[in-house]
Amino acid sequence: MAGNGNENADGDFSFSAAAARDALPRITTEKGAKSADVCHDDTAPRVNFQTIDELHSLQKKRSAPTTPLKEGGGVVMGTSGPTTPSSGETMLQSVSASLASLTRETGPKLIRGDPTSAAKVAHVPHTPTSVPAADVSDSGLKFTHILHNLSPAELYEQAIKYEKGSFVTSTGALATLSGAKTGRSPKDKRVVKDETTASELWWGKGSPNIEMDEQTFLVNRERAVDYLNSLDKVFVNDQYLNWDPENRIKVRIVSARAYHSLFMHNMCIRPTPEELENFGTPDFTIYNAGKFPCNRYTHYMTSSTSVDINLGRREMVILGTQYAGEMKKGLFGVMHYLMPKRKILSLHSGCNMGKEGDVALFFGLSGTGKTTLSTDHNRYLIGDDEHCWSDAGVSNIEGGCYAKCIDLSREKEPDIWNAIKFGTVLENVVFDEHTREVDYNDKSVTENTRAAYPIEYIPNSKIPCVGPHPKNVILLACDAFGVLPPISKLDLAQTMYHFISGYTALVAGTEEGVKEPRATFSACFGAAFIMLHPTKYAAMLAEKMQAQGATGWLVNTGWSGGSYGAGSRIKLAYTRKIIDAIHSGSLLNATYHKTEIFGLEIPNEVEGVPYEILEPMNAWEDKEAYKDTLLKLAGLFRNNFETFTSHKIGDDGKLTEEILAAGPNF
């Protein structure tokens, strides 16, 4: 039989030895070696390493030229980094200045890189200078490693290696824990009251601003800085706020946890390598020493937690809480102070834009549907929470979204569901220990489970996150009393009244024995974050709406036909039809009639929405119960607004009178 194979006695076919040799990789001998010939496999290129350490060194490459070691000014450079030598040195000098104690002339000695990566960081002998012995401390003799603007992948590695409670979920997100605090601590928030802020900020009854003096702030700052300098490494984020390039703010976040660094990487605007190279001195700095408590015996302290803002120094100090939302909302408060100084209105709102360029703002407290209604597959998402309205139009303050996760499902919120992937931070969620699949219905840790992800994770997000002037301003209220109409057109004074009121109603049920809804008022739909008096933001809103011809709307996403427990929740499909009619402009041409007490203009018809729910009283079987409930809610509005009646807008107070007249009349 011809060929290389042979048939054995059993009839099986087998290759000859020669054929077998030909089927294997060929081994050749390299001639010329002194002691012995060297064999190698000619089917693959020869390797250019001799040890396992050399192999590992080839695994990762640097994205930019390395920075040479240099000493001076209390700063020691490492041998790696994504910036040029001069910019890298400038960055470390800037961070050293940020971390400087107020009692010493120079900042701490810094090295760039992970202290565990000995191959990447070289130590240089430090020549001690002649200083008084009293000025020498252990922390002043050590080096602190700076992990500057790490990538999400690098932060994942840091969190999983060194932070207990950090895990990768089945979808690739980083699940982590915020410690004992799973939400903000508004009663522990303090703002420095000095000669400037005493007259500029909103103080007193109803205000979220609780005062502290400059000296107490400096005590807490020193405590936070000393703690951060005592660590082997700290994370530093240099990023931006506000997508409007003419009015963006440079922020620096110094923190002790990879979780915090990744959170702010997602929530702030991420600089390009070129922008980072020329970042310079930040406009505002956060010192997050949340793992370390404040001294409760310090003046103004009421617990081991303190979140302190000093607008004069442009600094924020966090002690005693690891909840990352404190950083996000702290910066939002700062923007509520800085932007109005530039004649820019800062807003706690969602924002989207139609394909024709029509922009809508959505205001609403928790549970009103702000995120759901501002996320529309037929429109571009500019942002879901924080915005600015300038003479050029609207811009998102943030670079990411911070979505609630409790009871999250793919069917209800597909965009949020799909955004929970690699790079996303999942706070305080519960997951299967084997599959790492998250159970979003599990409230074992907290109901306030959250996901923080870059805004580009939303498919229809508009990048850059800017848009023209809004055409519609939509105020959302979940009225569990069931007496507000599902849609009302507001005049300018009514828009200001309801904007200042910031009404919604929390549904009862979490407290045993409570059966009635509870009204909640939050000035400007974000009282916890505003710095100035609410009427100042309202006046700016009215001015911009009037200049741009924007229309105000009040949309009730709550109950109809009775209060909570008797009536029924207005169907989301009906609310979407109403929002679509606002976007299309069809409601501007509708005919309206006015309600009693609140004086709201209700359209006689909205396509796709039953007429009987447009007029609240028609949906109630018990008309007397409706009137009693309506008067009850009107009284709650009036009582709440008494906080603002003493504050005059304008020289003659005429605008204030118009706003008061726009409230309930009974």
Can you tell me the CATH class of the domain at 349-384 and 469-661? Alpha Beta
Give the low-pLDDT segments.
Answer: 32-36, 65-85, 119-134, 508-514
Mean of residue pLDDT values: 87
Please estimate the helix content: 25-40%
Query: What is the rounded distance between the termini?
Result: 111 Å
Description:
The protein has 666 residues and is of the alpha/beta class. Among the domains are: 76-148, no CATH class; 349-384 and 469-661, Phosphoenolpyruvate Carboxykinase, domain 3 (Alpha-Beta Complex). It is 27% helix and 23% strand. The chain is built from 19 helices and 38 strands. The strands form 11 sheets. A 9-stranded mixed sheet has the order 7-8-13-14-15-17-16-11-12, with helices on both faces. Strands 21-19-20-30-34-31 form a 6-stranded mixed sheet. The radius of gyration is 31 Å and the shape is globular. The N and C termini lie far apart (111 Å).
Task: Describe the protein's topology.
Blueprint: E1 5-7, E2 13-15, H1 17-23, E3 27-30, E4 38-41, H2 52-59, E5 71-72, E6 75-76, H3 85-98, E7 109-112, H4 138-141, E8 143-148, H5 152-162, E9 167-168, E10 174-176, E11 189-192, H6 197-200, E12 211-212, H7 214-230, E13 233-241, E14 249-255, H8 258-267, H9 273-277, E15 284-289, E16 306-310, E17 315-319, H10 325-341, E18 345-348, E19 350-353, E20 359-363, H11 370-374, E21 380-383, E22 386-390, E23 393-396, E24 400-404, H12 414-419, E25 425-427, E26 430-431, E27 438-439, E28 450-454, E29 466-467, E30 470-477, E31 487-490, H13 492-501, E32 503-506, E33 518-521, H14 534-548, E34 551-556, E35 559-560, E36 568-569, H15 572-584, E37 592-594, E38 601-603, H16 611-614, H17 616-619, H18 623-641, H19 654-661
Parallel strand pairs: 7-8, 8-13, 10-25, 11-12, 11-16, 14-15, 15-17, 20-30, 30-34
Antiparallel strand pairs: 1-2, 3-4, 5-6, 9-10, 13-14, 16-17, 18-22, 19-20, 19-21, 22-23, 23-29, 24-28, 25-28, 26-27, 31-34, 32-33, 35-36, 37-38
Helix pairs in contact: 5-8, 13-14, 13-19
